[in-house]
């Protein structure tokens, strides 16, 4: 599985940002054709995206393009121009505002036709689906199971908050007046369950107060604690924060490796199922929990 702790959004209408993005340590970069690109700049942005994919140095990163959603007139040309022009350089397409599994099936079918026409390996290009409105969330289980190309579900908090009429203007923060609990808990858990039940990754969306790195960390830590794999970043300052928040601490990683070693020893050499590690009892379920932390730590190079 690809590492997706930090996913950097870059408007494809801005060649300077497209250059800069290649130098940042984000796990994934996506070239945006959707909401960060003005309607009059959409066509030029497609060309920029193809050029950046063909000529840029994206080594070490997952590279994706976000197309426009299916209620617009742009989606089919976005997909055809980008994938015909640079499909061999592209890891994933991001489909925004997905409301229904048929939208992902449409993209999967179109991708297959383009791959066949161009002589690319069929099925290599993945899909990430953004869940950004009430209908998308209600249909999220079916969406999560809609295509073998799906790699991740992505929460789109800005559009989502607008779609449900949440009374706030600050993306990711609690709505003023809501003092009990976390207004996002249900949505995040719903996405997490749908994603995990189909072995997909699950990603938190943007935090728009880009200068407030502490605010970013706080909101990212909330998603990381639940089990999310990563979060979008909109600014270089947020990249390191995301990579750190979505990697286990060195202490937790070391502890996880210790559990795995101890468990392996006791179950194979001593043939015992539940054993003590210091004051802690560990069993098969502990091993599974430790595996999750260890895998993330190894991927982060700890
Ligand atoms: C991202 O696309 C969002 O709407 O938050
Ligand atoms: Mg959105």
UniProtKB/TrEMBL annotation:
Tell me which Gene Ontology terms the entry assigns under biological process. oxaloacetate metabolic process
All residue ranges annotated as the HpcH/HpaI aldolase/citrate lyase domain in the record:
5-236
Q: Which superkingdom?
A: Bacteria
Q: Which InterPro entries match?
A: Aldolase/citrate-lyase_domain, Citrate_lyase_beta/mcl1/mcl2, Pyrv/PenolPyrv_kinase-like_dom, Pyrv_kinase-like_dom_sf
Xref: Pfam families? HpcH_HpaI
List ligand-binding residues for substrate: 66, 132
Chain sites annotated for binding Mg(2+) = 132, 159
Q: Which Gene3D superfamilies match?
A: Phosphoenolpyruvate-binding domains (3.20.20.60)
Keywords recorded for this protein, A-Z: Lyase, Magnesium, Metal-binding
Q: Supply the name of the protein.
A: Citrate lyase subunit beta / citryl-CoA lyase
Protein source organism: Nonomuraea pusilla
């Amino acid at each position: 599985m690809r590492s997706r702790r930090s996913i950097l959004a870059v408007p494809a209408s801005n060649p300077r940002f497209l250059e800069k993005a290649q130098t940042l340590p984000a796990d994934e970069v996506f070239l945006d054709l959707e909401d960060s690109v003005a309607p009059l700049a959409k066509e030029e942005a497609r060309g920029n995206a193809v050029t950046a994919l063909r000529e840029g140095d994206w080594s070490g990163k997952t590279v994706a393009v976000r197309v426009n959603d299916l209620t617009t007139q742009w989606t089919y040309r976005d997909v055809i121009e980008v994938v015909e022009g640079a499909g061999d350089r592209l890891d994933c397409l991001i489909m925004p505002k997905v409301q229904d599994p048929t939208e992902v099936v449409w993209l999967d079918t179109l991708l297959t036709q383009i791959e066949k026409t161009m002589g690319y390996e069929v099925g290599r290009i993945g899909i990430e689906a953004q869940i950004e409105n009430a209908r998308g969330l209600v249909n999220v289980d079916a969406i999560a199971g809609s295509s073998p190309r799906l790699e991740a579900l992505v929460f789109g908090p800005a559009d989502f908050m607008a779609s449900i009429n949440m009374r706030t203007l600050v993306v990711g923060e609690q709505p003023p007046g809501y003092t009990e609990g976390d207004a996002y808990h249900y949505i995040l858990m719903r996405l997490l369950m749908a994603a995990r039940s189909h072995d997909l990754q699950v990603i938190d969306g943007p935090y728009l107060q880009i200068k407030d790195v502490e605010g970013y960390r706080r909101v990212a830590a909330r998603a990381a604690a639940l089990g999310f794999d990563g979060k979008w970043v909109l600014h270089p300052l947020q990249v390191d924060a995301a990579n750190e928040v979505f990697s286990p601490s060195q202490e937790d990683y070391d502890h996880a490796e210790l559990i795995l070693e101890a468990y392996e020893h006791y179950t194979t050499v001593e043939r015992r199922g539940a054993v003590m590690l210091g004051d802690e009892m560990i069993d098969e379920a502990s091993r599974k929990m430790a595996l999750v932390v260890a895998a993330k730590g190894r991927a982060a190079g700890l």
